[in-house]
Every structure is written in C-alpha cells, then in structure tokens.
C-alpha cells in the first residue's frame, strides 16, 4: 500500500505526524488480519486492534514523500493475530528509500453478527517450527502486559489554575472528540488508527507546550486498547508529561470514553500509552529539553517510573550495538 504525504499530514516544519504514520500502519494491519480471519468458510468477521507493541520512529518522513506500507502475519493464537508492519519512505525525485518504522500489532476477530463475540482464528502455516514457539512467547508476554496495564492506572488528568512553567500541570492537555461514522468500522466502533492519531496529537501538544520548539515523535511504548469505543460516544484524550531526560520527553496519554446517550453505561478507560518526543531546531538538530519539575507525590512517582523505562530502553539499545574490534 502506498500513500503520498500531503501538507495536512505534517506539522509546520514539514515532518509527517507520528499519528498519521500509526494510522497507516493500523489500516494495513487491519486489512491483512481481516482477510486472514475470513480465509475459511464460517462466520464472517472483522479484525479489531487490541494492542500495538513499542514502535520506534527511525527517521522522519516529509511532505511530498511516498510512504510504502507492507504487512505480514507472523503468529496466530486461537483468538488473536500478530501482524508485523514495515514503513518505507520514498523520495520520488531521487528514488531514495529508507526504513522509517517497524511495528507489531495484535488483532482479534469480532463477529459481524455480534460485536461482542470473538471468533477463532484460522492457523497460519510456519516455514520453521521455531517461528511458532517464538510467536507463542511473544503472545504470552503481551497478554500478561495487557492485563497489568488495564488495572494499573485509573486516575484522570485534572486541570490546575495558573500552573508554573516546566511543571506537569503547565503542559498537560486534553482533547474532546465526538465519534462520528467516518471514525468507525462497519461494526460502528472506532478504528484503532483513529484513536492512535488523536493520542499522538495530544502528546504532541503537551511536548510543544513544554519546550516551545518543533517536536517530533521518537517512539511509542505499547498502546493497549482496553475496550471498544462506539459511534456516538464522546472520547476525552488526556496527556501529561511524566519524565524528561536531557533530550527526550515521555508523555502518558489516556483515552476515556463517555456513552453520553446511554445512561446505563458509565465512563470507562478505553486505551492508554506512553509517547516519547524529541525537540528539534529549525535545522532539524536535536535540542536539549527543559527539565520537568514534578510537584506532587504522584508526579514524583510517575517521574521515577518513567526514568526506569528510559534507562531500561537505553540499556536495551546499547546491548544491540555490536562491540568494535
């Protein structure tokens, strides 16, 4: 699948929004997993996004470039599909291509007759026996993480009057969105890609408010979709800064859904994730980030947790670097 990047896909500096790329990734994953889940005779279904594993934005994509998105099914369990998606950017003037993203997504097949019914997934054929075993380990790990995340954080982002610069309250932001038909699948619930695009938009506002420079998405930790969001619901996407290193910012984004026309249902947490942003100069060089000043005990706790994630990922990256002879 190929898309040409247009001005409304990018920020004022011409860098394509991370949310735009995440939306393309999700659409490619939804197509291949829905095709696979309907490859055998039986009840028809559509694949719904359950989780996106951590994805790094390896290099920026710009207006006028063409995004090439390819997807492959790498594992199936009884009720879920793992999809690997790669994104290449192409400069159509020079023909130069570069890898910008690699992502892993998990989908579950939902019946077209009953949106709450999860169907069985046709098994995929593996070229090597080890592929199935490796895939099963990834499946068990993400299943455990999803359960832990679902109940980890039930709080909400509260506004604060006259906050001081560089505090959590100063940059925290919220966006309220009424879910319309164009946001939804045939089932009438929101596309995962639409939710991710809104989450990235809010995270970007938080990052820009904090450092007042051009900012770009550097990576997204696992995005967990805890529950479906239906057409007609009002969603509140809230973002707050949790941690800063010298050159990066971690932002927690929470999505709450409010079934305003259904009094029998209460507001609930629909999705959550951590986004990492970097600050750039007008020439595209990395800039130092103003250090976050946590004030409350909860903010200090979240800062330490963010620091732990940052150090863990830094050690993991350094571990992949081959030692020089």
From TrEMBL:
The active site is at 11, 200. Keywords: Cytoplasm, Hydrolase, Lipid metabolism, Repeat, Serine esterase. Residues 1-113, 169-283 form the HotDog ACOT-type domain. CDD domains: BFIT_BACH. Residues 295-325 are annotated as: Disordered. Residues 298-308 have a biased composition (Basic and acidic residues). SUPFAM superfamilies: Thioesterase/thiol ester dehydrase-isomerase. One of its GO terms (biological process) is fatty acid catabolic process. One of its GO terms (molecular function) is carboxylic ester hydrolase activity. PROSITE patterns: HOTDOG_ACOT (PS51770). It holds the Pfam family 4HBT. The keyword Repeat applies. Its EC number is 3.1.2.2. It is an enzyme of class 3 (hydrolase). Its main location: cytoplasm. PANTHER family: ACYL COENZYME A THIOESTER HYDROLASE, CYTOSOLIC ACYL COENZYME A THIOESTER HYDROLASE. This is palmitoyl-CoA hydrolase. The gene is LOC100409427.
């Amino acid at each position: 699948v190929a898309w040409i990047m247009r001005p409304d896909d990018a920020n004022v500096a011409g860098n394509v929004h991370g949310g735009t790329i995440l939306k393309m990734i999700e659409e490619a994953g939804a197509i291949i997993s829905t095709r696979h889940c309907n490859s055998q005779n039986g009840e028809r279904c559509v694949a719904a996004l359950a989780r996106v594993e951590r994805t790094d934005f390896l290099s920026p994509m710009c207006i006028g470039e063409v995004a090439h998105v390819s997807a492959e099914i790498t594992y199936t369990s009884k009720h879920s599909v793992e999809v690997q998606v790669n994104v290449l950017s192409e400069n159509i003037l020079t023909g130069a291509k570069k890898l910008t993203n690699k992502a892993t997504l998990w989908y579950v097949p939902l019946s077209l007759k009953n949106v709450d019914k999860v169907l069985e997934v046709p098994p995929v054929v593996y070229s090597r026996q080890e592929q199935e075993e490796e895939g099963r380990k990834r499946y068990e790990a993400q299943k455990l993480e999803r359960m832990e995340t679902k109940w980890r954080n039930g709080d909400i982002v509260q506004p604060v009057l006259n906050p001081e610069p560089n505090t959590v309250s100063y940059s925290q932001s919220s966006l309220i969105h009424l879910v319309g038909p164009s946001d939804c699948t045939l089932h009438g619930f929101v596309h995962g890609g639409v939710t991710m695009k809104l989450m990235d938009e809010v995270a970007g506002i938080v990052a820009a408010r904090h450092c007042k420079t051009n900012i770009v998405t550097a990576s997204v930790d696992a995005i967990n979709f805890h529950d479906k969001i239906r057409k007609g619901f009002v969603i509140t996407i809230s973002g707050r800064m949790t941690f800063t290193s010298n050159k990066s910012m971690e932002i927690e984004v929470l999505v709450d859904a409010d079934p305003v026309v259904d009094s029998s249902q209460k507001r609930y947490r629909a999705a959550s994730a951590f986004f990492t942003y970097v600050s750039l100069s007008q020439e595209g060089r990395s800039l130092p980030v103003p250090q976050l000043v946590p004030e409350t005990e909860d903010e200090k706790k979240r800062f330490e947790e963010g620091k732990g994630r940052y150090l863990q990922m830094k050690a993991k990256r350094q571990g992949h670097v081959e030692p020089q002879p």
